[in-house]
Amino acid sequence: MIIVVFFILISAFLLFVSTAPVAAQCPVCIVTVGGGMFLAQRLGIDDLLVSIWISALNTAIAFYLAPKINSGVRRNKILQIFANPWILSILLYLTTILYFQFTNQLGVSTNKLLGFDKIFLGQTIGLLTMFAGNYLYSYFKTKNGNKALFPYSKVVFPVGMVLLITLIFKFSFNL
């Protein structure tokens, strides 16, 4: 028993002392959120709330992939447009909307909020919220001498805003 406690304490100490840099919006985070969304739908969470997070996931994927695309297509000017995370986010947004349209999930008359389809509204809100979160992170980073305000702020700003917007819609409309 003493050996197990000692091992746990040493492991925890080494974990905190030897931290490695982590890529914000990394693939592990993306897969985790994606799995969470699948589970959320199975648990009966409202389509608007799930759509906000699906759109946020798409935007996180775009901001993760854009630098990788940029390093791979430096000489090809036509493909370089996809290296812009904002444009890639909009492209993923449009393909997701098309997917929902082709699978007949958009336009259901009983699935509306404020006169808009919940899935379409959620996708749009999620995209704009992630844009705002990423913009706020960049703004505060610039104001702070091009240094992050605090560790993981690149993740906290967008995800925190999406969480805040989700809670606002959840409690404002009893979703």
From TrEMBL:
Superkingdom of this protein's organism: Bacteria
TM annotation in the entry: 48-66, 78-100, 120-140, 152-173
Keywords (A to Z) from UniProt: Membrane, Signal, Transmembrane, Transmembrane helix
Signal peptide: 1-23
Keyword Zinc: no
Protein name listed in UniProt: EamA domain-containing protein
